[in-house]
Amino acid sequence: AQSVTQLGSHVSVSEGALVLLRCNYSSSVPPYLFWYVQYPNQGLQLLLKYTSAATLVKGINGFEAEFKKSETSFHLTKPSAHMSDAAEYFCAVRNQAGTALIFGKGTTLSVSS
Amino acid sequence: NAGVTQTPKFQVLKTGQSMTLQCAQDMNHEYMSWYRQDPGMGLRLIHYSVGAGITDQGEVPNGYNVSRSTTEDFPLRLLSAAPSQTSVYFCASSQDTREQYFGPGTRLTVT
Fold it and tell me: Which among A65, A93, A107, B73 counts the fewest CB atoms within 10 Å?
């Protein structure tokens, strides 16, 4: 069965610092992996996705993620945090039937000046 | 192209009342899903549909019904609301294995 674990429910960084949000997955089939961002009182917006092509995936707003099969990880990074990056971030894996997503519990990113 | 729309945005119900959360998409997507979001729990799948007339249960289906009579619409019905159903509800649609597109959500409070 598919599952997602996000390490750290809350991450705090300073503006300009590296952002690293951790995601590990479990999947019985080759995974399709996603990162979504949710700003306060809004819906979910896709940041990036891995669908078995390049292992380093670039997304919107300067974010990228690297798929590492040996570590079953799909960590999200951004070289330099901006105040506007403060939000909740969700990692997700497509379910085995390909009909829906299984989400991690989310990581709240805080950015201080 | 409105994407995925949900109504209402906010709703307060009393325990035992019933209501329907509406979801519509104009992208001709085959797959539609309902999730609930609770603090510290992420999003959990309630029900999903792979096409008109075809629905199935997700992780947390109890207390909810769905139907899919058209490709565009996927309403979620609460038969007898309970305080445990206080949550934010998101509808999503997708085509095949591509990413899901989410609606803006419905914030439901059951007193």
Answer: B73
Examine the pLDDT at A96 and tell me if it is beyond 90: no
DSSP strand pairing (A87-94 vs A101-103): antiparallel
What part of A 41-80 touches B (C-beta under 8 Å)? 42-46, 49, 51
List, for residues B44-97, the tens digit of each pLDDT value.
Answer: 999 999 999 999 999 999 999 999 999 999 999 999 999 999 999 999 999 876
* C-alpha pair distances (Å), B25 with each of A65, B58, B76: 29, 20, 14
**In contact, A6 and A65? CB cutoff 8 Å:** no
Sheet holding B76-78, edge to edge: B4-7, B19-25, B76-78, B64-66
Cα dihedral A88/B36/A30/B56 (nearest 10): -170
Contact status of A17 with chain B (Cβ, < 8 Å)? no
Q: Do A106 and B50 touch (CB under 8 A)?
A: no
| Average pLDDT taken over every residue of chain A | 93
**Which element (helix H / strand E) includes A81?**
none
Q: Amino acid identity, residue A70?
A: S
| Cross-chain Cβ contact A103/B50 below 8 Å | no
Mean pLDDT to the nearest integer, A24-47: 91
Structure tokens at B57: 């249960």
